[in-house]
Amino acid sequence: MIISVASGKGGTGKTLVATSLALSLKDTESVRLLDCDVEEPNDHVFMKPVITGSEPVYIMAPAVDEDKCTFCGKCAEVCAYKAIAVIKDHVLTFPQLCHGCGACSYLCPEKAITEEGREIGVVERGHAEGIDFIHGMLTVGEAMAPPVIRKVKEHAGDSGTVIIDVPPGTSCPVVEAVKGSDFCLLVTEPTPFGLNDLVLAVETVRELGIPCGVVLNRTGVGDTKTEAYCAKENIPILLTIPLDMEIARLYSRGVPLIKGLPQWKDSFLGLYERVKELTDGRNPDTER
Amino acid sequence: MEEILILSGKGGTGKTSIVGSLAALAKNKVLADCDVDAADLHLLLSPSVKQETEFWSGQVAVIDKDRCTECSLCQDLCRFDAIKNFEVDPVSCEGCGFCSNICPVEAITMKENMSGHWFISDTAYGPLVHARLGIAQENSGKLVAQVRQQARKIAEEQNLDYTISDGPPGIGCPVISSLSGVNLALLVTEPTLSGMHDLERVVGVCRHFGVPAMVCINKYDLNEENTRQIEDYCRSQDIKVASRIPFDNAVTEALVRGVPVVEYDDGRVSREIGKLWQNISGMLANGRKG
Hints:
The complex is a heterodimer of chains A (288) and B (290). Chain A is α/β, with parallel strands linked by helices and 288 residues long.
């Protein structure tokens, strides 16, 4: 089963939930933790994994052989991203704009374009306390996170429980990370910002046809509108975590909640049982 | 006119709460919300929308079933796995148009895609440009560029002194798009190991694009040892720490009431944000002299 942990709003506790859920399950399940927040990955701060392998992530970008090129302009015409331009007898490429679709090289009548890999990030894998750990890191200054996320997800495997830590927001990196999950946990806080972004996140996972439930973090301040929204939309609240300075301080030191306060383990096991019940009966025909 | 962008790397460090307060403190400015896929600034500024514009960007492939001979060339060549069983998954389609170019029977056309809306609004604190990216849409970077461009246009037309933009989390495409033309990036961090790790990456992005940065440590008293480490790091990078804001429930209470915290009370947080604005405007004024 693949469980993704997403949020809409940043800083609501995705990493806290993903790491504590993984650690709660490790004694009874085969667990794999995938950190797909490749712009700002943080799971490693808490898991302190032993990294055993790493591979660069490349995006293909065109390389033009000007000896073969007749400057016909076909490549520029077919590029939807304006990543290649023909000016008189020169071809200019803009690798940062290239999405690596491959149209220019395939359609070049002279076969003058080959594709060269350009490194935009790295995927590292390893283990921490019996948990398989994989994360991706986008290179600083690079714009496109989805290819790095795709590469991280290639390590999802075919069995066991996979927990995916998703970047904040609702746009392409989120879709890339959440897609293919059997269930999505949406972590939020009971504030107007938390609710506004939860609504957007719910719309996104519904668009993808993935069932979801809410983890409500830092309860005690804020308001009750998030609970009212969840009741109205029939979204189960699977776990609540109070605003607690001790929890916040553990987090600040990079200590997973269930390691600092082991009494929370049962709550996370209960959360997992609820997720299993909620996905039971579905025959998840999901691509891995 | 000076352009100020508030970033953080890590989400949830307090960017929007701080921008809301800067909106109340700064004079002669236009506000922009560049977090287009989870915009929240409007919740503090109660905008009344004056102008709403559709944002058309990118394309999506559509297969004409009647023409399609199911030769599967498109499926084989699509790098984004967006075509399965001779149907396009619009969420996976990146709009490259490769399939429509190579279809031997011209069964695939590219359809323009409406990927969101942007708005110009009035608020009690001045004009606000904001946007909403459509659900599961791409091109957030282009929508951010549009928001920034409109804000700049308003600042020029009305002869304003500042644009103040609330940035998206992360370091990728929408952040890079937000950074263009910015005079000063205010990086809001928190004294957690995650916050510190993410700060270093966002400092790297500012440096990569040559944008001067200043740091604000929010909830500094959550872990004072980490706060000291952030200050040491900033010193080593020659980055000024403009403010240390304490943890206070007043921030959440103000948020629940839908007002910037400096309008809610004059406690410790409000006083610190007041100092923060003095530091920002002072640094920009020095930059002009220098």
